[in-house]
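Hi F.,

I've been meaning to write this up properly since the lab meeting, where we talked about keeping a consistent format for the predictions we share between groups. The idea is simple: the sequence comes first, exactly as it goes in, then the C-alpha cells exactly as they come out, then a line or two of notes. No screenshots and no reformatting. I'm using this chain as the first example so we have something concrete to point to.
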Amino acid sequence: MSAAVRLELADGVFHIQMARPEKKNALTAEMYRCMADALADADSDPAVRVILISGAGGNFTAGNDLADFLATPPMDESAPVYRFIEGFSRLEKPFVAAVEGVAIGVGTTMLLHCDLVYAGSSARFALPFANLGLTPEAASSLLLPLRAGHARAAEMLMLGEVFSAQTALEVGIANAVLPDAQVLDHAMERCRKLTTQPASSLRLTKQLMKRAASALIQETMNAEAEVFRERLVSPEAKEAFAAFFDKRKPDFSSFN
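Output, unedited:
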C-alpha cells in the first residue's frame, strides 16, 4: 500500500485515486507498485465490475517524479512502472479515467488503454518523452498514430507540447469534455451504468475490440521498453535531466 494512492470499492466500482496533490500527483516507484497490485487484484476480483482512475487535488498526474525515477530507474520488466503499464494494457474489465488538470507522460499514455475517458475543460496533456531525450512508452508510438493520424501524433510525440482537452477530444483520446467540477461525478455515473451491464458481455466486447491489435500492442511495448532503457543512460537524457534540476533550458546542439 501507498499513502499516495487511495483505493476504494463501492457498488462494483473500484476507484484508484493518485493522491499526492502537493506534487500534482507525480508518480513514485511505490505508487506504481501499489497501482500495479491494485489493478491485478481488481481485475481478478468478482466484486469489481469497473475500474476508475483519477487524481486528487485538481490534477490527474504530472507523470514521473523525476528524482525518484532517476534514483530507481526501470532497468527491466520487473520495475514497478512496467508492471503498472503491463497491468492497464491487459485489463479485461472496463477501465475509465476522470482527468482534471495536468496529465503528463504516463498520465496521457495510459488513457490510450482506457475504454472511457472524461476530461475537465482545464485538462492539459503532454507527451514530453523526446524533450527528455527519451522515447514513447505504453505502445503510444502505435496507438496514438492510429487515433490521431501520423501528422498529429508526430507533433505530440516529437515536439512534446502541451495540448488541450478539446484537442484530446478531437483526436479520440477523450470521450467528452466537461466542466472541471463535473468530471469525477460524470465518470462515476458512467461507471455505475457499466455495473448494470452483463459483466461477461462487457469483458468479451472489450476482448473482441482489442483482439486484432493485442499482439502488436505487446510487441510495440516490448520494443519501446528496450529503447527507453537505452535512452535513460544516453547523453541527451543526462543533459535533459540535469537541465530540469538546474531549472535551465537543455542544450542538445552538440548531440547528433
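Notes:
The domain at 1-180+199-256 is CATH 3.90.226.10 (2-enoyl-CoA Hydratase; Chain A, domain 1).
The chain has a mean pLDDT of 97.

If this format works for you, I'll send the rest the same way.

G.
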